[in-house]
Amino acid sequence: RDSRSPLIGKYTIMAPAIVDDIMVKLENPTVKWITVAACVGGGGYLAVKMSWFRKNPFQVFSGKTGAMAKNLVDSGISSYNEFFNQEDGKGVGDKKLSTPEFVNKFYSLITDFYEYGWGESFHFAAREVGESFEKSIIRQETAIAETVGLKAGMKCIDLGCGVGGPLRNIVKATGAHVTGITINEYQIERNKLLNKAAGIEDLSDVVCGDFMDLHKVFKPNTFDAAYSIEAMCHAPDTAAIYKQVFKVLKPGALFSSYEWLRTNKYDPNNKLHVDVVDGIAKGNALPDVRTIEDCIAAAKSAGFEVQYTFDRATTGGVPWQAAMKSARRAAYLTHILTGVLEFLRFAPKGTQAVHTMLLKAAVNLEKGGDLGIFSPMYLIVMKKPVA
Fold this sequence. Notes:
Blueprint (H helix, E strand, L loop, with lengths): L5 H21 L2 H21 L7 H4 L12 H11 L15 H19 L15 H15 L7 E5 L5 H10 L2 E6 L2 H14 L5 E5 L14 E7 L8 H11 E14 L8 H13 L8 H11 L2 E7 L10 H5 L1 H16 L7 H21 L2 E10 L4
Parallel strand pairs: 1-2, 1-4, 2-3, 4-5
Antiparallel strand pairs: 5-7, 6-7
């Protein structure tokens, strides 16, 4: 005897017929596309409402990618991928001197992705248990400001400032005047807009230029301090960029940098290690990935006195790569979304290829962190001698 209610029994009998009817309707192409659009739209709306994205993706992919014209995105990502092919742990080889051109192209392609998916500060952070991602980012920035003794009345340069998230937070925390430099014109536009909105225009400036040629932009002995947050890694020559920073600093000034480096756990004879670090380099516009010993030697050759080095990736109760793992759900949804928007010609051709490159980079960054062979925040603090 069926103990279920008549109502339940009725719907149990009707369910197969309802499913069959739906499947028949979905064979109609028009119905199928309407259903797909409704699912994607509903999923996107849910993601935005649940704050999986830091910015509305429909505002980001509105017919362009960063500073790059719509018709250049596809060829742009193709030439980028070709340039940054790594030579089995040896970087990009003889092409290294052309790196700045392709770093500029990289940020024209990915700035909008970074800003909406990660925030206005394009870097990682050592995070404590229970600490929010946003608070850890600000703490990472104010920590580097402390290493150079930044305070009100001082003039500082932010080398590779991106869209200015760290610059704004450091200005607010210290009251110092900070000048940012980036090679990418689109990032300059974003900086000016966001700095104005933050009300820090009087204590900030942004300059479009190649930090490999600082002497062409700034006079010698201009700044009281300098910092770089995960940007020196783009330089084709570490000693050359450190020498440029040395020239624009006043005697006695401090320069601190969070470097992307291979750790002493990296084994050049381990294929997995080589592939992971090469993947990090290719997906993040790096000519190669160095070691702390390389940076110390470069600093000394530039004339700096190395004060100390410290890997901040070894601190905190939450591994730095955990932030990427927690953002994976939004990343995969973004990948689907970019494909749909590109298919509908709302986003430029090549947009999903750009995101594919970023997804691969994210996977390798996670592996590098999990294996302990890579750090994106190895701190080196240097001083320009007084005499």
